[in-house]
Design goal:
This protein is mostly beta strands. The chain contains no helices and eight strands. This is Fibronectin type-III domain-containing protein.
């Protein structure tokens, strides 16, 4: 008899590229999918630990990166990925990512 459980072994998000107004974030597949079938990814963001969660991406199966624009310069943002399949979901840890400075010469 087979028992399937939620995916596990999520790595923190990373920044592929940061500008003063955008972040290109990336994540890896979980180390252990723990079930057959496609994995679905959701990306969440918040501006502080007390702020509301913004859902940027919901149940995508074909991507492991996302481009976020319209952000403020040299500002921290919190991101996490949620990975799921038919048998459960796992919520990754919040990662603090920062936009770059707005350098004007």
């Amino acid at each position: 008899m087979c028992f399937f459980i939620a995916p596990d072994g999520l790595s923190p998000l990373t920044v592929v590229n940061a500008t003063s107004a955008s972040l290109n974030v990336s994540w890896s597949a979980p180390v252990n999918p723990n079930a057959p079938g496609p994995l679905m990814y959701s990306l969440q963001m918040r501006t502080s630990p007390q702020s509301s969660i913004l859902r940027l991406l919901e149940n995508a199966t074909d991507t492991q990166s996302y481009y976020v624009e319209g952000l403020s310069p040299f500002t921290n943002y919190l991101f996490r990925v949620v990975v799921s399949h038919s048998y459960g979901q796992t919520v990754g840890p919040w990662a603090t990512l920062r936009t770059s400075e707005d350098c004007k010469y």
